[in-house]
Amino acid sequence: MKLTNLQLEQIRAQIRRVKACGNPFYTERFKNVNPEDIKTQEDFENLVPFCSKQDLRDAYPLGLASVPEEEIVRIHSSSGTTGSPVIIPYTKKDVEDWATMFARCYEMAGITNKDRLHITPGYGLWTAGIGFQAGCEKLGAMAIPMGPGNTEKQLQMMQDLKSTVICATSSYALLLAEQVETRGLKDKICLKKGIIGSERWGEKMRNRIKDILGIELFDIYGLTECYGPGIGINCPGEEGIHIFDDYIYIEILDPITGKPVPEGELGEITLTTFVKEGAPLFRFRTHDLAAFIPGECKCGSKYPRITPIMGRSDDMVKVKGNIIFPSTIEDVIRSVPGTSSEYRAVIEHVDGKDKMTIFVEVEGGTDRTEAALTMTYNFKQKYNMTPEVKIVGIGELPRSEKKTKRIEDKRFD
């Protein structure tokens, strides 16, 4: 993806603005950068420094604000389990721009103002719930702001209000789908589409949700540091996620070298915002892994496309010299008949050696011994390591209303 002259000018304008705003965070980052020197793509890559999550954490609480406090109308915080949270300030324009992008996502998914959107992600400091709702209201559709939890009420409201679109994390969408199946509610709900975000999900999980509910699924992308969910979505029938490059510049880089990878190769998504006011981003390393999809999309959209998120560079674990991602395990599970999408991997250090145990759900009637042996063999053949595979029944692994942690590394506990 190449920067246009307009986009280069937008980046220069942003750097001029943050250098003049008096904020120490930006003053320090750009003290040696003259925006007028950024005339080409190469200048941008050589002169504009990368930004990490830790950089943003260090600016806690409001050190990222690049506008006067009276212009900040809202703050959001990214999820995280360690260190200070990241606080992102938004101006009125930021909120409106985000809603515009989100409404565009709904439109790309074929959702109209006649739809009823059942919104289950959390509200509050997290961007998800309020982002789904703002986009819905911008579109003019009916928002049903449920938030997470209370599955009994979720299912009742879904029936009573005839929700046509479910908005959820993939983990909670699966939980709700399984409850619909268990309770025999398939003929009592009106769902047609699902907008799923916040975490990576594999083909097995996607197909299970789709098959149970009989709906069309869409993969929405975004993160709190960069507005929130809604900066991109896949179009009907296509896996590639369109990124709205009138607001966001996306690079896909080698996680080690920080250099662009060849088109079509997997790398780390790095984001720059063109017009964000409250806390603009410059070359933010997201740790999300994807690849550019070359060529034009059959849908006719000119927005650039990336693959679905394949994992995160910080989800990577090394076991006996092998690099393991969630997608590594999902690749093996997918090849074994009768397996579901649900698994957990536990890595431990036992008797001086690393050991990985994979718990996998299988459907009723599946030969559990054969499934375990096949999975172990396939793992050995494809990745040159032999985990211990333990088979459980459908529903025996815990479900989550938010994100599901699928790899647990206990070696450093």
List the helices and strands and how they pair.
Layout (H helix, E strand, L loop, with lengths): L4 H16 L3 H6 L11 H7 L5 H6 L13 E6 L9 E5 H17 L7 E4 L8 H12 L2 E4 L5 H10 L4 E5 H13 L10 E5 L5 H11 L2 E8 L4 E7 L6 E3 L4 E6 L13 E7 L10 E7 L1 E2 L11 E2 L4 E2 L4 E3 L2 E3 L1 H9 L4 E12 L2 E10 L5 H16 L4 E6 L13 E3 L4
Parallel strand pairs: 3-4, 3-5, 5-6, 6-7, 18-21, 19-20
Antiparallel strand pairs: 1-2, 7-8, 8-9, 9-14, 10-11, 11-12, 12-15, 13-14, 16-17, 18-19
Count of DSSP helices?
A: 11
CATH class of the largest domain: Alpha Beta
Largest sheet: number of strands, sense, barrel closure? 9 strands, mixed
Classify the secondary structure makeup into a structural class: alpha/beta
Largest sheet: spatial strand order: 4-3-5-6-7-8-9-14-13
Q: Would you tell me which CATH topology of the largest domain applies? A: Rossmann fold
The CATH architecture classification of the largest domain is: 3-Layer(aba) Sandwich
Low-confidence stretches: none
Helix content: 25-40%
* End-to-end gap: 42 Å
The gyration radius over C-alpha positions equals 22 Å
Apparent shape: globular
Structural domains: how many: 2
What is the mean pLDDT?
92
Counted beta strands = 21
Task: Let me know the CATH homologous superfamily of the largest domain.
Answer: ANL, N-terminal domain
What is the percentage of strand-forming residues?
25-35%
GO biological process, one term: phenylacetate catabolic process
Family: Belongs to the phenylacetyl-CoA ligase family.
Pathway: Aromatic compound metabolism; phenylacetate degradation
Domain AMP-dependent synthetase/ligase: 65-271
